[in-house]
Amino acid sequence: MAAIMEARGLKKYFKTRGGLLHAVDDVSFTIEGGTTLGVVGESGCGKSTLGRLLVHLLESTAGQILFDGRDVTHVNRAQLEALRRDVQLVFQDPYASLNPRKMVNETIAEPLVIEGRLNRREIAERVDQLMETVGMDRRFLNAYPHEMDGGRRQRVGIARALALEPRFIVCDEPVSALDVSIQAQILNLMQDLQENRGLTYMFITHDLSVVKYIADEIMVMYLGQVVEKCGADELFEHTLHPYSQALLSAIPIPDIHAQKERIILKGEITSPVDPKPGCRFAARCAYAGAACAQPQRLVEVGPGHWVACHRVQSV
Prior knowledge:
The chain has 315 residues and is of the alpha/beta class. The protein is 31% helix and 24% strand. Strands 6-7-8-3-9-10-12-11 form an 8-stranded mixed beta sheet, sandwiched between helices. A 4-stranded antiparallel beta sheet has the order 2-1-4-5. A hairpin with a 2-residue loop joins strand 1 and strand 2 (19-32). Helix 3 (104-115) packs parallel to helix 5 (150-162) and helix 5 (150-162) runs parallel beside helix 6.
């Protein structure tokens, strides 16, 4: 299947008083149409910044973004409006991402009004269709965000993202603010939408149990860089990077009698401001050696399994 979204050496640096903060640093990947790429890592690893670069809420410092083979790294206003029809974002906090002064029907209709292709009757019909698609009863058409629970608010956010019939959606931790039972409903909804509409997702999360459920491929990030990327099943069965191993060891097991070794990371986290060359995880890695002072590049160590670790690559 052809790649629908591709990043090549993507970088995003922010100026700070101490220097340049390397939020996203030389990240490359492809996402095939109709699949889900899960992006995981600790808070501050750059995964949300990466998602915002793809939808142009932030502009990249360097690198390329390709959508359907077209270079969309730098776009003018007309090109951005066209891209918005195909590329959308579902935000993490369903309450903060909705305008508290707008009713549900106004929120969902807003992209259609801005696009200007439909008349008022057609927009109203489209809003009804979208409400039905995401499992929202029509009685909430005139409701405000504060009158709904988190699950319904996130359904409104998803309906808004679907309004222009996009092909690619960045999902920035869309269930992290929801109760577990509501999380399952939203994840099932997103899978149904993907199957019925052929959608492609980048699913950003810190919850590995969630990403295992929804993702086809998983990309692990640490301080702005990709340290491991492979199929979802492959990552859980053959975890290779020491950081990925530590992340997976933290997943709770729903069995009070089960024994599981937890990898406790020690040491100081490397500063993302003007970091030195070499592995950024080395200060917390139990296997760090002299070779880790050299830049670590992603290398395919198995079919479709990429790892940026000198120790793994030398085995």
